[in-house]
Amino acid sequence: MVSISGLIKRYDDVTALKGVDLEIESSGIIGILGPNGAGKTTLVEIIEGLRLPTEGTVRVLGIDPQENPRRLKERIGAQLQTTAILPELTPAETLSLFAAFYENSIPPKRLLDLIGLRKKARARNRNLSGGQKQRLAIGMALVNDPELLILDEPTTGLDPVARRGVHDIVTELRNRGKTILLTTHYIEEAEKLCDRVIVMKEGQIVADGAPFELTSRASGASTVWIAVEGKLDPTPLMHAGALPNGREKEYFTFQTEHPADFIVALGDLLKKQQVTLTDLRMKRPALEDVYLELIGAPLDEKAAGASLPSNLPTNS
Amino acid sequence: MSTTLTGLAALTRAFLLQTIRSKTALFWNLAFPLLFLFGFAIIFGGSDPQRVSYLVPGLLTITMISASFFGVSLSMVTLRETGVYRRFRATPVPATSVVSAHAVAALFNLALSIALQMAAAKMFFRISVSGSWLDLVLGILLSGFAFVPLGLIVGSVARDSGTAPAITNLLFFPMMFLSGATFPFFMLPGWLQTIARFLPATYVVEVLQGIMVRGESLAQMSGPVFVLALSGALAFGLNGLLFRWESTEPIRKERLVIAVATLSLVYGTTFFLLPRFKIAASPDRSPSLQTDEDRALLLTHFAYVDENGELVRNARMLIRGDRIVRIFEEGESPDTSGATVHDLEGGYLIPGLIDSHVHLGGSAGGNVSIVEFGKDRMIHDLQAYLGVGVTSFVSLTDDLDDLLSLREAVLRGEMRAPRPFFSGPALTAPGGHPAARFERVPGLAERLTRQVATAAEAEAAVRALARRHVHLIKLVLEEGDASFQKLPRLSEEALRAAVKTAHEMGLKTTVHVQTDAHARLAIEAGADGLEHVPVDLSDATIALMVRRGVTLTPTLAVAEGMKNVATGAPIEDSLAQRWVLPEILQSLKSPASRIQAARQADAFVQQMRRRFEDRVKRTAAAYRQGVRIIAGSDAGNPATFHGVGLIRELELFAQRVGMKPRDIFLSATRYPADRLDQPDLGRITEGALADLVVLKANPLQDPGAYRQVSRVYFAGQLLQRDALLTAPPGPWQPRIAF
User: Fold this and answer.
1) Rounded distance, CA A66 to CA B251, Å?
2) Which member of A83, A98, A100 has the closest CB to residue B86?
3) CATH (domain of B433)
4) Which end of chain A is more exposed for a tag (fewer CB within 10 A), N or C?
5) pLDDT band at B429 (very low <50, low <70, confident <90, very high)
6) Least confident of A136-140, B77-81, B240-244
7) How far is CA B116 from the centre of its chain?
8) Is B94 an interface residue toward A (CB < 8 Å)?
9) Is a pLDDT exceeding 90 seen at residue B548?
10) Contact status of A311 with chain B (Cβ, < 8 Å)
11) B329 and B361 part of one domain
């Protein structure tokens, strides 16, 4: 569907893309994750035909966007990061307007149902909430029933409820067999939605794979918190490869590369020392950790990532 | 591709909805032009239908400029800045669809606001359109077609919403003030007129005024129409080079230069082809007057004298606005519904008379009374002309600025006065006649004469006058009186150069002559007419006049007037008693007047007597040999009264010269109109101006008929003759009086 090799994009004084190779064949949701300035938007806008590559070859649905942008635009759908809609039109009118740009289009009513704006069909665009606007933007991208849908940071700036609404639509589209290319800088979003995550950093792809593949590949240790009744000497746990990480409130914390061995060792210890376990929490290395490691975020951020999460699901 | 068109249609609809639903857009697009109309119409038009009708073309032009520039360019810049265009760019819709949609939507908006403005102007101020409504609609669309692409270009090249209004204002204000939309174009100094010719708005004002005020058709204004169509099409095409989807795209300077250069070239070429285009500069081309076109008059029960001097009986006449639209026999019944019927009670209808030699600045008095020098005297005398049935005059030697403003006021319908035609100042030798007479008032000679010594000076003077749209050139050949004051005479080379240049500029010339030798000089230089008849005019010179078609304006009235003053004959003319200010009549008898002093000398009295008799004789000789005689009184000179003077001239033609009634009639109607190249003036035909006089007697039988005026129509309106001297005639005031 998308085939990119040796893609370089230079602006006047910066190189936004420094040699990107990318193949997308399957359907599903492909996430491009990266911090601001990583080159995500430049990449998708080259795919959309809005920007021209400096070097390299790009083929989208077998079409060179530079050579035949109009034919390509007929077949893809795009929701742009920085854009606006005509404020005095209604969502229904906006969708009809965009429908007129394409040779084939989906009736606006069906789209309004899909993006959940049926009730707002006659409201003015300027009166829509941020989430409603973003859903309308996705609707606009779907008008031509595209083979490839490109969403550039669709949830940035939305509150959690609105974000959830967008996630639901995207999931629904995935279930219908669409191929969706989605950029985001929210790690949870990538983890939750994507079948494949591409991590970008400073104009290059630094990791590419399914979320679980990425996490398993990670070098990060799991963090374990335990709370007990009685006096605990954690020394035997060290033998199982755990690193004591001090105490946090009433919790002992440990870092371990091998959480399974740690749990077995902890069971033995509890029996031996006659101590009762009152709570156990564990955080496995998540995409977040992998991501932060990949993009080389500063250490204190890493540490912060390992602090006791109050909302962490307990494994006990 | 079909989506190009569906995209265009959908975008047009979207842009229109965008304007219709936005309160600010609605205000600027619809409410503001209306406020503008009411403001202008009440403040500058005094809510008067005729004056407002004259203002409307300018107002419509301003509305169109602002809709095209502010409306189109600002909305384009906003849509680009906010990223709406960016989103369109991600779809297959081509740039041409977006740009065209802006253009079509702008034309719709423009048509809507213009329609509203016109409707309001019609409803509240009862304005009239002289030309056809179809032409007006087409003219407005054409104007939009010329303006809107310019707005598109500004919208494409303006960097952001900060620079767009700056560029817009830079274009808007010159167009508003130089195009004739706010000030009459001909009032601008020459160099500003030159600049104005590079502005499309100038041509739009010309076209709209042509249709609405002067009653011209688009076909008659092919020049400006062509320029507007061409520049609109070019600007639209050039915009394709300049359109930008995103603010980050660079403004392509070399393409901008190409666009500006191309448009300048179009208007620059127009500028050099100018003589073929009419352009608002010349409001006198068609001396139409602002009138209510809906007003129709049906005249019945009259006989009229046609353009050949033949009497036609049993006719009826339909007048609409200021024109005769239909003349028909009593049996015929064309559609005259809605027309007011005027029964002329068997009267004789003739065209309004033309006095072809007047000096508005002269009081006709003895130059002793303060009244003679007042502005009110001149305004009074303008009414006197109308009162006796003189609806046009030719001023030879008067202040040009005053005449230009008078004509403007008359054609606008603001001032009740005859139609003024004029030479402006006369060309004479340095210190020659009549400059020598004006020495006592500083600056007066410079205003009333152009004193030229060489051919080059004469040529320059004529060109300058032609640019100010005089109707003919007056030259003076006069050497003064050997016994009184000898004066330098215009040189032959200057005379020849002046005549030649005038002809090049499409103007006729007429020469004030004193002697037969002068007459010969003038004729040989190619002059078209002679003013005054030399006492020694020879038969040979007369024969030459006939061969060359040179006209003669003998001005016998002034010769008789001078004789009467010299001999002390009482003024018993009943017309003079009615139409001349009593102070003027009194001043002639005043011992303080120079003429009363002069008449103490017997020689003077004898000379005036003899001169009058000789002039009568030579006029008769010229007439008998076939010289075309034109009636001019030389009113303004002592005892030759404004208005009344022409009636006396016609009587002298009958009683002393022995002219046939038909020739007398033509000498004050069609002949002078033809000399002025005014095909709609001085005759009763369909399409002619409805300046008409009703006489109680038949002028083809009774030479005294011209004294028996029962009605005067000016521009299709019946004048209240009894109220002429009392009802305020209008705001015009002469700049100078002397």
Assistant:
1) 21
2) A83
3) 3.20.20.140
4) C
5) very high
6) B240-244
7) 30
8) yes
9) yes
10) no
11) no
